[in-house]
Amino acid sequence: MKKKKRKATTAKKQNDWVFALTEDLMPLKYVLYGILFFGFAMLVFTNLTFVEVLQLMIAIFLFFFLAGYSILLNFDFDTDERIILGIPLSVALIGLTVYYLNVFFGIAMSAYTVILVIIFYFATGFLIKNKSLLKK
Amino acid sequence: MSKLIINKKSLVYVVIILFLITGFFVRFLPFTQGDVQSDQLPVVVTFDNFYHPHVAKWFYDSEQAKYTMPFKVLNYQGINLMPPIFYVLEASFAKVSGLSFYQSYFFFLCALLVFTSLQAYLIAKRFFGSDVGLVTFALTLFPAMAYYFVLLIGFSLDIGGFFFSLATIYLFIINIKKDNLWLSIIIGLLLAASFLIHVVESIALIVSFFLVLGVFYALKKVSFKSALYQQSTIIVSFLLVIAYVLPLLFQGLLYVAPTSGSVGEKFLSVGLKHQVPQYYAKTTLSGLILLFTVIGLLVIAFNYKKIIKDNQKMSILIVLLSIVIASSVWKIGINPIRSYRIGYWAYYLLMLLPAIAICTIAQSVKKNVLIKFVMIILLAGLIILPQTSSSYEQLKAVDANPLVNTNGWNAIKFVRDNTPVNTTLFELYGFEHEYGMLSERVLLKGDLNLGDTVKNMEFLCQGEFPESFIVQLSVWNWYKNNSLIPTKRVGFSSFESEKIYLPNKNDQISKFEKYQNYSYSELDYVVARYRNTQADSCIAFFINESVERGANIVYLNDEFIVLKT
Questions:
Q1: Chains A, B: CB pairs < 8 Å
Q2: pTM for the complete prediction?
């Protein structure tokens, strides 16, 4: 009985997180449509392969949108503002963090570092926005 | 009703996406022709096209940003004293994009430019309405040829500076009312990113922010305490972020030296068939866009009472005015910190005026939504279509006259990929524009502006093989206190400067005096263009004599040769 209850609680918690994530990221669907269309145009107009275009599309989403958008979830902006202002904020956060990590701690400016920095800012923005879920 | 709103919103998103993608390809395709897999710089027009990518590539290859490339000076490593963030961004994006570095570099530049237009859209939309926003967006995305200049000439740092500036302006203006501490910190952060890319834009912004708050305080729209609190929070967070780099930048500034100047106009004198564009395309408005800008000004003048009451509109107009003034003083002979370059940036805000004019005319002619919509498209199309069509052709023409063709690049690439890293490479002829720095080797060349190349060639053309050649370290010169200073166009505006730490400084310095004669035997490799110049026979003499002296031809294509001495 207890096990069942615990399972139900865990499932509810997971659902809450998934719901919060979906709700927060849903406005980025317009960005995804844009990137998909851009990817299609890159396939038509350039000599990149499908896999290369796919990697480029993921890179654009991660590098230009995810971190800044996530941080701006904590401010009173509408969707347009959050997406557009998130672009320079993402780029600034990535550039400054990667640079200072390298200069102060000698961490290499590799693809892994860049991706970890993006994930860090995404998680920070998302967790601050949904800190109430942490308390449950 | 709600369905209609959703449809309109979706339609706006579709238009924005289409504009963004078209704007990107208008910049990207003329120079790449869709060949994104090549390991070659897409734009090769002047010095800056080579300089910034080669710094960023060093960061990319070495995965660090503290030290400059050892091949710059006799394989000694120096501490980077340049604003680092743009190069870090280029290196970081290239790491995740999967493109070859040089393609990724250009891709990133084009992306920054179109995203800057997107920020102009946001400013115009928020303060003047959705129609003005879309027209401003279109006008900034598809400008006249002069405003593509930053891209084709390789003003990469300027482009980086522009990218952060508009968002900073927007956040600053809305935060006057919100007075949010965290937003002030973000503004400081964006200003710092801009500063650590290209100093001038962030300084201009800080000045204009003081101006806005000053005017607001004078008109009793904000209290002194609030104005001081906001500005000081921004400045403190800005200073905290740049604190580590600032001393390095000033260290570089101390060693600022005049450079050997523009190389472009000298090319033809030695028979290279390059068409180098005028170095600075001055930022002026003409034709229809000027007319609509004036009309936009008149619209604002007639509505000044309303605008004074609207804090946000007033703020953006003060910022616009201050930036336009800063970028226009060169017209009356004052040119501090190369102010005409700010003009490329001012354009993004200046396009608010013609957009306001177009939307006001469309609004006043007919109140019907459909007719208004058609009028806006017609008027904006009248400006955009001819200038985009003309610009696109001109961009293709620039690409058709590169400083370096595929043969030249293949020769340099051969050296980069097939010679030891501590190789000393002498560029006898054909790379006077510094493209050779992409060989990533210690690079010696005659300074074209000082006539070195001509002197070297004169000997060869007279059938004499000189025992020593007049060479200088590429992009380096001698200045104060016997320090070795790069001759990249260093200046206050950008703090673009590096100082090299040399362990055996005196030994090295004595070796590289200005107008150094460098003996043939000290050179490891020589690269030269031997065909399609006016000095083909002279180069042929050099090649024959070198081979007789034991040199090996290690690379040869239709135009370029690489010799191992």
A1: 151
A2: 0.89
